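Hi L.,

You mentioned the student needs an example of a multi-chain input paired with its predicted structure. This one should do, with 361 residues in total across all chains.
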Amino acid sequence: MNSLLYQKLLSVIAHDIRSPLASLKGTATLLVDHHDQMDMAQIVAFLDALDRETDRLTDLVDDLVVLARCQIGALRLQRGRYPLGDLLAPVFEQTCQLCKAPAQGDVLTIAVWVDRRRVQRVLGYVADLIRGALSETAPGQRIALEVSASNRSVLLRWSDVAELQAIDRAAQQLTQVENLDDPMLRRVAQPMMHWLLSQAIVELHNGQVWFETQSVPTHLCVALPRAEAGEVD
Amino acid sequence: MRRALVIEDNPDFAAFVGMVLRLNGYQAQHVARFDAGLRLLQATAFDLVLLDLSLPDADGLAFFAQPIAHTVPVVAMTSMTDDAVLERLAALAAAYFIKPISARDLTALLQQVAPGDDDGITHVHSAC
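Structure written out for the whole complex:
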């Protein structure tokens, strides 16, 4: 990604912070000024909204901080040995309606050497990407997830099934962003940000996140380092 | 009762706007997408539209190119502070505001946008 586009993307993301801020400001002032005109259920619903939007704002700010730290090489990883199945469990939970579970059950017991919180966040971004890609396809479509391991790494590979081209569309959207005009950049800014964060975080682990677009179907791949016998938490 | 349509993709912000509308005597209806908003507006009469400019399926400014946009006062809701965008909004919308906005300021703005006055259009700018 060129630096001008990168700056533009950061500006769009910084701009997106106004969205949860708008809900927080509006809802808080509404409760202060008009709580006596609401019933308890309405008040609780607006308090829930405050809670939700605060989390959203926290995530956005955290994304910006993490990306900035990655850029200057200042992100510290808290690595440990974790069975792959544990890391993938939330992804399966989030995308169980969308993904075929991997057949290779034994692979899921292999330990990887990662910062659990950061990598789970990356896998969450992947789950979001898959959900987003599938939301534009016919209902009932699925993505296949294949898990394999070598001596040094574990490879997660999500693939379009049959004629489905959801991952291919996501790849086009994220990798051809150089050609996008400003309104389109606004719409893909968050997935772009998550894609950049995923690449930066996984590369810090000496792993890799990439699309394989040369073949059909298109694959989305994440390679993570396998824990070796001598590595301790 | 006056009817207002809220076209906004953030459900929490839409709930806030809907509540302020109800407190100001409107019956509020909410959609999250541009195309759904257009369809509803073509099928149902509204006294006011509150339109978010950053929608998932379209740029909200495209709304003003639709013939239906000239039949109802539109309050644009934006996070953009770009002068060029705001100048266009000042020319196209009955009013606009820059997010975030307080319940009190939104109430004041709604009271200034008065459908039925003269040409039905009052230009108001509210930035908080």
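You could point out the following to them. The first helix of chain B runs from residue 11 to 23. Chain B is about 35% helix and 25% strand.

Best wishes,
N.
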